[in-house]
Write a structure and sequence with these properties.
Shape: elongated
Structural class: alpha/beta
Number of helices: 18
CATH architecture of the largest domain: Alpha-Beta Barrel
Number of strands: 17
CATH superfamily of the largest domain: Glycoside hydrolase, family 3, N-terminal domain
């Protein structure tokens, strides 16, 4: 078929994956599917009310698509586990990548991927925008943290491969992100452009290693990073999503990735500060990106589609480029299951897997004297910094790890004192006054490195009660802030499985790994 004829048949909407508002198949979404024939739809928490609703919505999306195309619609979601998991009800809630990376096994990772894949398929999804392969750094952006499989590139590679194999065995398209790795980015790309100042040698030796491994293992899709990598660009600060040197020369030609390359959301601050939405879209396609993710702004979607129509008419080179992407999208879709199927849970042992991973993730950095375990039935004060959204990408559902019920179930008698992440001096003084009336104290930390008032209160508590137990719930970098602490536990998560593992450690039921 001649290129011109191919472009007449090819719907430019196939290059777009779009978000939307609401819980139902609304008028705008119908237009995207019927008229634009978009290639994919992404669901966020704003689109998910309960399991029955999301299953009905995904079914209607697939049915509407079948009326206009023989190729299925990509129905995607971010179901990473931990802090980023759009579905919370009717699915298995895992502790998150950092917990898996610290204490999990390759077998754990495979079965987590398999369970996640079967559950997504059951509700009508066919693509998961996971796993994250960015390496953990204690200098990195707060938007990554618990989403990383850790700082060891070889371990992250093994676990990433296992997660992907599990998802893809279930029939779900797995998506490794964010290429070429943004773990050391100090800024959040949702807000501004991060610049990663590593050398090419450093990037290839560490950050690229997990991506190389999953490409060799057959990952079907990869998502781009919006960070800038001046080492790849001769010093130029160009977002990787818009870089042909990164997306084509490095990913396609050097690493031989044959699958679908999807951009991160083009509406993020890392791109907005330097490019119009049309410029970002066209530069991404020219760089080698196949599918453009447009999550939030309906007007931006209109502008991008209009720009694609204009440029595809007069620019033969871009038509060639779009033809390549069209083939990759078609190849991916032709390999998808024609319709959702029920999950075969007889193939998935260990439905206590989230707790098993959480137990493996908890560790003791140091323990003074006979502080642990706490005596059964003894009263103690738990100063609990209430979890809040730490970054735009996170979900509120992970905040439901209410500690009191888990502690009481282990025979402990806590007085739980919830407090905001930024306690006022007056609130802090009231808490300190209460220390005199309790025999034992446990205090948590939650990204204390970001909250000076929280850090100050923890230091004051440790000064007045040297025997207090410090439980680091979120980013392990908090460890270095409190040298005064004599007994420190690290959970690497703060959802229900992690809080259960913490309760078991405090009661003596669980003997966690000692480190340091």
């Amino acid at each position: 078929m001649k290129l011109e004829n191919m472009m007449n048949d090819f719907k430019l909407g196939e290059l777009l994956m779009v978000g939307f508002e609401g819980y139902t198949l609304n008028k705008l979404l119908r237009r995207y599917i019927r008229e634009w024939q978009v290639g994919g739809v992404i669901l966020f928490g704003r689109n998910i009310r309960n399991p029955d609703q999301v299953a009905e919505l995904c079914g209607k999306l697939a049915e509407l698509r079948s009326q206009v195309s023989d190729l299925p619609l990509l129905i995607a979601v971010d179901q990473e586990g931990g802090t980023v998991a759009r579905l919370r009800e009717g699915v298995t809630n895992f502790p998150g990548n950092l917990a898996l990376g610290f204490g999990g096994t390759v077998d754990n990772a495979f079965h987590q991927g398999l369970i996640t894949g079967y559950e997504l398929l059951y509700y009508g999804f066919n693509m998961n925008l996971a796993p994250v392969l960015d390496l953990y750094s204690n200098q990195g952006s707060h938007s990554l943290g618990l989403r990383s499989l850790g700082s060891d590139p070889h371990r992250a590679a093994r676990l990433g491969v296992a997660l992907i194999k599990g998802m893809q065995k279930a029939g779900i398209v797995a998506t490794a992100k964010h290429f070429p790795g943004k773990g050391s980015a100090r800024r959040d790309s949702h807000e501004e452009l991060p610049v990663i100042g590593k050398t090419v040698r450093e990037l290839k030796r560490r950050d690229l290693l997990p991506f190389r491994a999953v490409i060799d293992a057959g990952v079907k899709a990869i998502m781009t990073s919006h960070a800038a990598y001046p080492a790849f660009e001769g010093g130029v600060l160009r977002p990787a999503t818009l870089s042909r040197l990164v997306m084509t020369l490095l990913l396609r030609e050097e690493l031989h990735f044959p699958g679908l390359l999807i951009s991160d959301d083009l509406g993020m601050g890392a791109l907005r500060s330097g490019y119009s939405i049309e410029e970002a879209a066209l530069k991404a396609l020219k760089a080698g990106v196949d599918m453009l993710l447009l999550c939030h702004d309906p007007l931006a979607r209109e502008r991008v589609l209009d720009a694609l129509k204009r440029i595809s008419k007069g620019d033969r080179l871009i038509r060639e480029r779009l033809k390549e992407s069209g083939k990759r999208i078609s190849t991916l879709k032709e390999g998808l299951l024609p319709s959702p199927r029920s999950p075969s849970f007889d193939q998935v042992p260990e439905h206590d897997l989230p707790l098993k991973i959480a137990r493996g993730a908890i560790s003791v950095r140091k323990s003074a004297g006979d502080v642990l375990p706490l005596e059964k039935g003894s009263r103690f004060l738990l100063i609990w910094f209430k979890p809040e959204l730490g970054a735009e990408v996170e979900d509120p559902g992970e905040r439901d790890g209410e500690p009191g019920k888990h502690l009481r179930a282990e025979g402990l008698s806590p007085k739980v004192l919830p407090i905001s992440l930024c306690p006022s001096p007056e609130k802090g003084e009231r808490i300190l006054d209460r220390l005199r009336a309790v025999p034992r104290v446990v205090i948590t930390s939650y990204d204390a490195y970001r909250y000076p008032d929280q850090r100050r209160l923890i230091e004051d508590v440790l000064e007045r009660r040297p025997g207090a137990v410090l439980a680091v719930l979120r980013d392990p970098r908090d460890l270095e802030l409190f040298p005064r602490a004599r007994t420190v536990l690290i959970t690497r998560g703060y959802g229900p499985p992690s809080i259960q593992a913490l309760a078991e450690t405090l009661s003596g039921k669980l003997k966690p790994r000692r480190e340091g």
